[in-house]
Each structure stands twice: as C-alpha cells, then as structure tokens.
Amino acid sequence: MSTRRAGPPQGLPMSAQLPLPYENEKKQRSKCMSFVCCMWKVFTCIFSHVTLVAMVVAYCFLGAVTFEHLEAENERNVKRGISSIRVNLTDAIWKMTNDKPVLHQHNWTEAAVIHLQSFEKEILSAMKKDGWDGIEDVDQIQWTFFGALFYSIIVITTIGKSSQGDC
C-alpha cells in the first residue's frame, strides 16, 4: 500500500473538515463593529468626494485670481493703445491739412486715404493679435473676477472632455 492519504472520508463535506479563520472572524464581528466599519466606508467615500470637489473649486478660484491679475492690465493697455492710435491719426490728418496753403481735394484725399489705411491696419492688428473687443472704455473690461472664473471653468470642462475622448 501507499503511504499517501486517500483524502477526506467520503461522508463529510470539505468545509466541515477545514474551518476557515475568516468565517470565524466574520461571525464573531459584533453589530457595533459592523456599524463602525460601514460608517468608515461611508465617511471615506464622502470625504474623498468632498475633497475632490473642494480641490476643483479651489483650482477654479485660484485660476480666476491668476487670470484676472495677468490679463486685466494687458486689456487696459490695449484699450489705451487704441485711443492713442486714434489721436495719432487725427493729429496726422490735422497736420497734413494745416501744412497745405491751398487744399486740392484730390491731393488731400490721397494723403488722407494713406493715413486711414494705416489706421485700419493698426485696428485690425489690435483685434487679431491683442484681442481688442471694440470697446475703448478702460473701466469696462472682460477680465473681471467673474469673467476669469468663467474662463477657468471652461478650461477645466474642455480638458475633461478632451481627456475622455482619448480613452
């Protein structure tokens, strides 16, 4: 005969012969301990979500403060630049008119068109490159705190959309 065991006796199920320590611990856990474990799971779930939402809100507010600080003064400078462009144009046309002892419509119109074309190019450049919105009032700017907050939220939603599409 062999020295190996033949296995468990035929009549007894396997679980009855080998008690698992995990099952004993599970049975021995009190209702109070089960409640504490359940509450811990709920707390960690809620805490992690609240922390995540708080971090996103803080990121938006920090972004709003940063964008307002960086962009508001630039927007004011662009608006001041537009005013100086207009003043330069009117001064150039006045000087051109004042320098001529006799005005001829054809000559004056040609010179004025040259100045106006230069003015148009500077205005278009300010709109395309500098983001001028057509409003010259220095006190009326787009980069207020709430405008910058809106921009920060848009940046987050745009990043979230593009990263979801990559998966």
UniProtKB/TrEMBL annotation:
| Protein origin, superkingdom | Eukaryota
Q: What is its main location?
A: membrane
Topology with respect to the bilayer: Multi-pass membrane protein
Does the UniProt entry include the keyword Disulfide bond? no
Gene3D superfamilies reported for this sequence:
1.10.287.70
Give Gene Ontology CC terms: membrane
Q: Where in the cell is the protein located?
A: Membrane
Query: Is the keyword Transmembrane helix assigned to this protein?
Result: yes
Enumerate the transmembrane spans: 35-65, 141-160
Give the matching SUPFAM superfamilies: Voltage-gated potassium channels (SSF81324)
Tell me which UniProt keywords the record has, alphabetically: Membrane, Transmembrane, Transmembrane helix
Looking up PANTHER family in the UniProt record yields:
FI03418P, POTASSIUM CHANNEL, SUBFAMILY K
Q: What is this protein called in UniProt?
A: TWiK family of potassium channels protein 7
